[in-house]
Amino acid sequence: MTNVNKAKLMDGRALAKRVLASAAERVARISASKGVTPALATVLVGDDRASATYVRMKRKRCEDVGMKSLALEMPHGTTTEQLVTEIRKLADDDAVHGILVQHPVPKPIDKRVAFEAIPVEKDIDGVTSATLGRVILGLPAFIPCTPAGIMQLLREYHVELDGAHAVVIGRSPILGRPMASLLINAHATVTLCHSRTRSLPSIVRNADVLIAAVGHPRFVQGDWVKVGAVVVDAGYNEGNIGDVDFEAAIEPASLITPVPGGVGPMTIATLIDQTVNAAAQQLGVEL
Q1: Disulfide-capable partner of 243 in 44, 65, 212, 262 (CB 3.0 to 4.6 Å)?
Q2: Into which CATH architecture does domain 35-119 fall?
Q3: From residue 103, how far is each of 12, 115, 127, 135 by CA, in Å?
Q4: CB-based burial of residue 158 (10 Å sphere; 0-12 exposed, 13-18 middle, 19+ buried)?
Q5: % residues pLDDT > 90 (the chain)
Q6: Chain segment 63-112, per-residue pLDDT in tens
Q7: Which of these is catalytic: 11, 58, 245, 274?
Q8: Does the structure show a pLDDT above 80 at 179?
Q9: Does residue 8 have an active-site annotation?
Q10: pLDDT score of 50
Q11: Where, residue-wise, is CATH 3.40.50.10860 in the chain?
């Protein structure tokens, strides 16, 4: 096994711990000021085991910071109309400050229709078209949690983005595309790629900053990584395997996120942080 130089690792767990500690302090201030506890509603449709695990983790983090966690579980076979009806009930509930629809949702549900039922002020996962439009324009918004968490990691490790060539592999509307927009807004020059991009290894070899979010285990090979590059692995595949061949990529990289322990903890911490901020905005509390 490669001798890992720990100075190269971007520790998402340590940063997430600090983010959650700050969230807990703000939850206490909101509760003391308004007598209201910030609440996150999670909506889980179907019986996907991985999705159920993610929801449990998010609910546990809510409880850890003193927030309320409301769980809505709907069976496999739920229609788009049924799901939208339940989301609108949560949207109208003043006791709910953030709404998370766990994705992927099972077919034949139209996930875009379901996401659009979430009001912007409660869209703490950054999934609505209005939120994504604001992200692209660099306007205040609840940014999709994984890209937001990645940006915080990059700031934590003082990664210079101004003028850097950033390559994003993955074009998901809640990860790759908003990630590219955030990097552009930080003055990076961005190449957005995906699994069908021609000559992908040669493009990646020019990256000062690489964000891998393609959803295939060990997709990015070590010899694709430029010496001194910052590598952020946003993938999570069965067996705790990322989208980057970690053991090979750590040699040329100057900084790299491990899987697990890198991007994942920051995604959940960002979700909690944004829910607290949403509650403060809805309740008129200055934080």
Answers
A1: 212
A2: 3-Layer(aba) Sandwich (3.40)
A3: 22, 10, 10, 20
A4: exposed
A5: 91
A6: 999 999 999 999 999 999 999 999 999 999 999 999 999 988 999 999 99
A7: 58
A8: yes
A9: no
A10: 85
A11: 35-119
Predicted confidence (pLDDT) at residue 2 exceeds the cutoff of 50: no
Active-site residue, 125 included:
yes
- Taking 60 as the threshold, does the pLDDT of residue 160 lie above it? yes
- CATH superfamily, domain 144-264, is NAD(P)-binding Rossmann-like Domain (3.40.50.720)
Of 123, 125, 243, 245, which one is the catalytic site residue? Answer: 125
**Residue 105 DSSP symbol:** P
pLDDT value, residue 287 = 84
Residues of the chain with CATH 3.40.50.720: 144-264
Cα separation of 254 and 251, whole Å? 8
Q: Residue 259 has which token pair?
A: 């899987």
List CB contacts of 132: < 8 A, sequence separation 6 or more: 126, 144, 173, 174, 177, 178
Alpha-carbon gap, residue 135 to 40, rounded angstroms: 22
Catalytic residue among 102, 123, 208, 245: 102
Mean pLDDT of 13-18: 98
Return phi, psi of residue 254, to 5°.
-85, -35
Residue showing tokens 């990289």: 253
